[in-house]
């Protein structure tokens, strides 16, 4: 069994790497073919064309696109070198590495909110399908799911930060946070994290709730549940102990698939909440046509998304031997 | 310093004016429309201490100026940490701006102005105790002009042949030619610490930005305490700053808050002390609040429509004049700037010494515009409301950058005004970088944009024929007489003779209307009333920050 699992993983990994390479290559050509040039100096007449050319030579942008592509690919594959960010003027990997923790923190916190809320709502909805609570939960989760995350973020800021100043209006720390004791600094961070994590998590909670509700309903109709009930077990015990455990397996897969949603959401939420993660970095890289950094963050997102999918596959394979085939 | 293009009102700007607010308002004439709140009495002796929290909309690239993109914000921050040879003064309303000595203690020109001998001050030290020396000045010039560094503004040093070190604090600058911008070109860029930064070979600079932060020494009023990218930049007073008792502030926190609306909210809530760019529509909130006040000054910027004169539609001067007369510029100002702007007439804006006051704005006169267009053969033959000539309708795209609300709104109003004279303009909102690309490639009909100007007043950038291929003459306007005048202004050292040349150049541009000049905006800064002696001006939003203080400091 172990060898078949390993083989399965190896096949998935190889396919994933191929996908990643394809995505990156497409991204390379797309970003280079997008109108506009890197470096804002272009916009400033004080920078003479000769100086611009000199800068482009340093960046290697004066060479034909095919040569640039070949060099870029070779550096990545042979040396793991993603190049130097035009804007930050330091290696792309170092630039990204400094921002990944903030994004992961936000994504993990959002995932916590997503699952805690989703599980709770899913169970409430499944208890009495068709009841008012079920309808309200469906309506609420569909609404949250359909609204653009940036709008939700702006509304949350407007109401919970400006109208009723319960949360800070963005950033990761308060102005004087560096001088705080570690405990207080952690609390300050949590206070700043709460609103973006809530927005991102609640927006995604609907899918968890819907999946769980449907899968619970299916399980609750099974014979072993009827048996459990017939044995005289309390409803709470039936749902929590027997039904939930069986209904949770689709959620494992959802866990991996949530990652892309949370990450792409984080990109937007970070801009709204001035959160210093990869999202803002990428956003600025795109506006500034910082090619190496755009491609670096595409790679990073690709790795996380594909990693998420792999995780989902793995969990699924562990739970259900049939998929390993 | 040279002009540069404005992305939107808030982003890239080239700052400048006076030492004290009152002086600012007098000098640049803060006339038209809603001005500043009355200055708060600064109440006696400055108090030392306290932390000023400033709202900023973007980050800085590097602590090493030659690695920055040279945005106004970057310049303003780096000017707090590094001194220049001279400091440009905000006194350009009456005469070319004074360059007051900063690191320089004295300057002597050779008779033919080909050599300048400078003696440096003997009381300025880097923060590690090393004296600032002539070696620093020479090495800075070498770094600025090195192809390995590719400083975007290196061409401003083209006229400098050599910087010779004559002694520890004595140096001689040799120029290739005499010009009115010799001193300001020399002064472009702060002086860098050779002893601290020359360890890293120039060729490695562009991939090792953080190294400079780790090896930072400064000679300005503030030093860097911490820098969290995209979060905040914290400056702390430099204890070795050469002016005794200054800076008054212990710390200045530049809090990066990209959305302007958030900046205003945080200012009103007391979380920020200073915001340097307030939209005209929000000025009343600042004025209504008991904790804040508004500081308004004439920005060195103008907004325009550039006509692509190489396209048949805009090739005739009379057509461009008619289009200008069909656009009600005062209505744009009233609707969009709430009085914090005035009609522009020239690329040399009205708050600058060389502006030609005799230029009258083209009147808003739709009837005259129609007549002029009819004389050029434009008539509405088929009665569809749009003029035609030889079967071709007067229809074109008016492009502007999508991220500037005021420009997009202006374009829509202009579309409506032009329709009344039978001209069909289609507004295109285009992402900024893409728009710049289209402009540089002359791939547009008409483009609505803005230029920030500096005090060199060199009109080459957008109005000389040579700038069509290698520059920012987007619309391809070409007038040999104007070219000659512009070249002459670059050589003429005598201010009176130069003024005459600049007036003639402005007259030609006014007549030919390669641009329709729209409006000159005021810059609105908002400040908490506890902040005293704040002196934002077009040179820097944080001008003389070392002299600002807090009433409750």
Q: Would you kindly provide a written description of the structure presented here, covering whatever features stand out?
A:
The complex is a heterodimer of chains A (about 325) and B (about 550). With about 325 residues, chain A is mainly α. Helices cover about 75% and strands about 0% of the residues of chain A. Chain A is built from 12 helices and no strands. Chain A has helices at about 1-35, 50-60, 65-80, 90-125, 130-145, 150-165, 180-220, 225-230, 235-245, 250-270, 280-285, 290-320. The model of chain A has no long low-confidence stretch (mean pLDDT about 85). With about 550 residues, chain B is an alpha+beta fold. In chain B, about 25% of the residues lie in helices and about 20% in strands. Chain B has helices at about 20-30, 70-80, 135-145, 180-185, 195, 210-215, 260-270, 285-290, 315-325, 330-335, 365-375, 405-420, 430-440, 460-465, 480-490, 495-510; strands spanning about 5, 50-55, 85-90, 100, 105-110, 115-120, 160-165, 170-175, 220-230, 230-235, 250-255, 275, 290-300, 300-305, 340-345, 390, 390-395, 395-400, 425-430, 445-450, 515-530, 530, 550. In chain B, strands 1, 2, 9, 10, 11, 12, 13, 14, 15, 18, 19, 20 and 21 form a 13-stranded mixed β-sheet that branches. In chain B, helix 9 packs antiparallel against helix 11 and helix 15 runs antiparallel to helix 16 (about 495-510). Chain B starts with a strand and ends with a strand. In chain B, about 55% of the residues are buried. Classes of the chains: A mainly alpha (about 325), B alpha+beta (about 550). The interface between A and B is large, with 50 and 61 residues.
């Amino acid at each position: 069994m172990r060898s078949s699992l390993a083989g399965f993983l190896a096949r998935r990994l190889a396919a994933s790497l191929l996908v990643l390479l394809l995505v990156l290559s497409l991204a390379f050509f797309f970003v280079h073919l997008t109108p506009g040039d890197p470096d804002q100096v272009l916009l400033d007449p004080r920078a003479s064309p000769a100086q611009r050319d000199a800068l482009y030579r340093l960046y290697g942008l004066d060479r034909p696109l095919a040569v640039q592509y070949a060099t870029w690919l070779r550096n990545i594959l042979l040396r793991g070198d993603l190049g130097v960010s035009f804007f930050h003027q330091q290696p792309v990997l170092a630039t990204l590495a400094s921002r990944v923790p903030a994004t992961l923190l936000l994504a993990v916190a959002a995932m916590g909110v997503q699952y805690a809320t989703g599980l709770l709502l899913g169970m409430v909805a499944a208890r009495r399908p068709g009841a008012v609570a079920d309808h309200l939960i469906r309506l609420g989760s569909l609404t949250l799911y359909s609204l653009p995350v940036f709008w939700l973020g702006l509304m949350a800021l407007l109401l919970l930060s400006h109208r009723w100043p319960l949360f800070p209006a963005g950033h990761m720390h308060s102005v004087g946070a560096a001088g705080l004791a570690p405990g207080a600094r952690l609390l300050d961070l949590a206070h700043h994290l709460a609103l973006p994590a809530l927005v991102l998590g609640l927006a995604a909670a609907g899918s968890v709730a819907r999946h769980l509700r449907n899968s619970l309903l299916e399980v609750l109709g099974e014979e072993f549940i009827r048996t459990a009930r017939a044995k005289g077990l309390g409803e709470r015990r039936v749902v929590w102990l027997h039904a939930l455990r069986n209904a949770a397996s689709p959620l494992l897969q959802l866990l991996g698939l949530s990652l892309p949603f949370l990450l792409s959401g984080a990109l937007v939420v970070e801009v709204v909440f001035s959160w210093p993660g990869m999202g803002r970095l990428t956003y600025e890289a795109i506006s500034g046509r910082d090619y190496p950094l755009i491609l670096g963050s595409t790679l990073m997102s690709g790795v996380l998304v594909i990693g998420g999918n792999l995780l989902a596959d793995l969990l699924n394979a562990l739970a259900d031997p049939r998929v390993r085939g | 310093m040279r002009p540069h293009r404005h992305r939107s009102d808030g982003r890239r700007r080239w700052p400048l004016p006076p030492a004290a607010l009152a002086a600012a308002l007098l000098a640049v004439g803060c006339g038209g429309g809603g001005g500043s709140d009355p200055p708060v009495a600064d109440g006696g002796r400055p108090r030392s201490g306290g932390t000023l929290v400033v709202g900023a909309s973007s980050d800085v690239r590097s602590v090493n100026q030659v690695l920055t993109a040279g945005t106004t914000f970057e310049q303003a921050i780096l000017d707090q940490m590094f001194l220049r040879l001279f400091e440009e003064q905000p006194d350009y309303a009456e005469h070319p701006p004074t360059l007051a000595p900063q690191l320089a203690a004295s300057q002597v020109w050779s008779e033919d102005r080909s050599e300048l001998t400078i003696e440096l001050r003997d009381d300025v030290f880097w923060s590690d105790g090393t004296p600032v020396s002539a070696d620093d000045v020479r090495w800075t010039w070498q770094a600025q002009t090195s192809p390995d560094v590719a400083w975007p503004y290196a061409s401003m040093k083209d006229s400098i042949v050599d910087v010779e070190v004559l002694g520890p604090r004595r140096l001689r600058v040799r120029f290739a030619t005499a010009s009115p911008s010799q001193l300001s070109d020399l002064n472009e860029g702060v002086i860098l610490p050779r002893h601290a930064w020359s360890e890293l070979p120039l060729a490695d600079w562009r991939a090792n930005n953080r190294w400079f932060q780790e090896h930072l020494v400064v000679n300005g009023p503030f030093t860097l305490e911490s820098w969290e990218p995209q979060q905040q930049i914290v400056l702390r007073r430099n204890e070795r700053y050469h002016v005794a008792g200054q800076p008054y502030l212990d710390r200045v926190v530049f809090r990066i808050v990209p959305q302007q609306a958030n900046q205003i909210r945080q200012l009103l809530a007391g979380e920020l002390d200073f915001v340097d760019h307030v939209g005209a529509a929000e000025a009343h909130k600042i004025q209504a609040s008991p904790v804040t006040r508004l500081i308004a000054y004439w920005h060195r910027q103008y907004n325009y429509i550039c006509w692509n004169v190489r396209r048949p539609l805009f090739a005739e001067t009379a057509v461009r004049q008619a289009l200008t007369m069909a656009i009600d510029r005062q209505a744009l100002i009233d609707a969009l700037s709430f009085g914090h702007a005035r009609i522009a007439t020239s690329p040399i804006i009205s708050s600058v010494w060389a502006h030609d006051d005799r230029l009258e704005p083209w009147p808003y006169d739709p009837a005259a515009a129609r007549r002029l267009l009819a004389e050029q053969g434009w008539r509405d033959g088929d009665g569809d409301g749009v003029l035609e000539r030889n079967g071709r309708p007067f229809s074109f795209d008016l492009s502007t950058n999508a991220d500037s609300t005021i420009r997009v709104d202006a374009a829509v109003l202009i579309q409506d005004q032009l329709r009344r004279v039978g001209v069909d303009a289609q507004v295109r909102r285009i992402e900024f970088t893409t728009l710049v690309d289209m402009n540089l490639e002359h791939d547009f009909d008409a483009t609505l944009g803005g230029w920030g100007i500096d005090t060199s007043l060199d009109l080459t950038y957008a109005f000389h024929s040579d700038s069509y291929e290698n520059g920012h003459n987007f619309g391809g306007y070409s007038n040999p007489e104007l070219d000659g005048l512009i070249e002459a202004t670059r050589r003429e050292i005598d201010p009176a003779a130069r003024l005459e040349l600049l007036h003639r150049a402005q007259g030609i541009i006014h007549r030919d209307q390669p641009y329709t000049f729209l409006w000159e905006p005021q810059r609105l800064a908002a400040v908490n009333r506890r902040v005293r002696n704040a002196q934002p001006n077009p040179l820097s939003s944080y001008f003389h920050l070392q002299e600002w203080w807090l009433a409750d400091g």
